[in-house]
Amino acid sequence: MVWNCLRFLVMVAVLGGFFSGGGHAQSLEKVSCSEAVRGFFFLPLYVAHGLKLFEHQGLDVTIDSAQGGPLAMQALVAGQVQFCATGHGQVANMYAEGKSTKIVNQMQDKCTFYLVGRPDIKEIRSLKGKTLGCTKIGAETFAVGRYLVAKEGLDPEKDITTTGVGGISTMASAFENDRVQAVMAFQPLTSKLLAEGRGTLLARLNTREDSLRWFGSPDYSFSVIQVTDDYIRTHPETVQRFINAIVAAEKWLLENNADEIAKVVAPYFSGMEHEVISASVEQDREAFSKTGLVSKEGHSTAVKIFRDAAILKKDVPFDAIVNNSFTEKASR
Predict the structure, then answer these.
(1) At what angle do helices 236-255 and 43-50 cross, to 10 degrees?
(2) What 3 state SS string does the chain have?
(3) C-alpha 130 chain-centroid distance
């Protein structure tokens, strides 16, 4: 009987330790990250999630997809999520509207949008009188679309109509049903449309050469991780662990081929063929951030696009919205 009692006490002690947080599954801190839309510009987020790099940092991360950057950012400032994956220009615009947040990591340093027209449209100027689809009015797709149209001599206020059509599936539907005649697309939708002959590539922006041509700069701080100032102040360790995982994912992306990357991120793009995902990774590879750090030139380019698109009314200082310290620490 004494032996049975001892065995029982040991079992209680072990189980008690597990359920009180001693076990790995119970020790994870739950946080959420909103994303503007599901797209390849946020690959480090999916890699960190898929390879359980967040769990290695003691985090249980939920990814919440919105239908455009403005909605994802609203969830952040409302306290519904702790992190947000969005576009640099939108963070600048939010600051100009009086809401101060910080970019703590840059996932891509080139713009990975593609302006795709219906097969009968061969150049941007042919969009006069047509409708251009973006994810949401005010989103990064909206700003870049207006910028490209203006650069080719059209007035984005008078010559075209811009409408929000949401993420990959709804954007594809609007395009195929001729509700819009062009879209500010992204991967893997772009590769699928072009491979199936359902679209014409009007502008590519994701290489150094393309970036210089369209934006006058090889560096465009594009997709980023955003956190509120209050959360940085109250949860600096959580922010650091989240960014540790993102930086590890960014390094993994640079070290692995498109096929291996496609295997990891395929679950985040349900219904998309492996070949399309792999081709999409290869198309955007040059845009992968090598350091995760935002440069002053990259910041200036992102702000310039929003100013030229008549969304931002004035410049936004680098230090007002960028905090590289978490990525710097994670890279040591």
Answers:
(1) 100
(2) CHHHHHHHHHHHHHHHHHHHHHCHHHHCEEEEEEECCCCHHHHHHHHHHHCCHHHHCCEEEEEEECCCHHHHHHHHHCCCCCEEEEEHHHHHHHHHCCCCEEEEEECECCCCCEEEECCCCCCHHHHCCCEEEECCCCCHHHHHHHHHHHHCCCCCCCCCEEEECCCHHHHHHHHHCCCCCEEEECCCHHHHHHHCCCCEEEEECCCHHHHHHHHCCCCCCCEEEEEEHHHHHHCHHHHHHHHHHHHHHHHHHHHCCHHHHHHHHHHHCCCCCHHHHHHHHHHHHHHECCCCCCCHHHHHHHHHHHHHCCCCCCCCCHHHHECCHHHHHHCC
(3) 28
pLDDT on residue 26: 59
In this structure, are 227 and 97 located in the same domain?
A: yes
Q: Is residue 45 part of a domain?
A: yes
Residue 70: the pLDDT is 86
Q: pLDDT tens digit string along 240-282?
A: 999 999 999 999 999 999 999 999 999 999 888 999 999 999 9
Q: Across the strands, what pairs with 227?
A: 102
pLDDT of residue 112: 95
Q: Which of 171, 192, 215 is the last residue of a domain?
A: 215
Q: Which domain holds residue 271?
A: 31-110+220-330
Report pLDDT digits (tens) over 283-320.
999 999 999 999 999 999 999 999 998 899 999 999 99
- What is the CATH classification number for the domain harbouring 243? 3.40.190.10
Residue 3 belongs to some domain of the structure: no
* Count of the separate structural domains present in the chain: 2
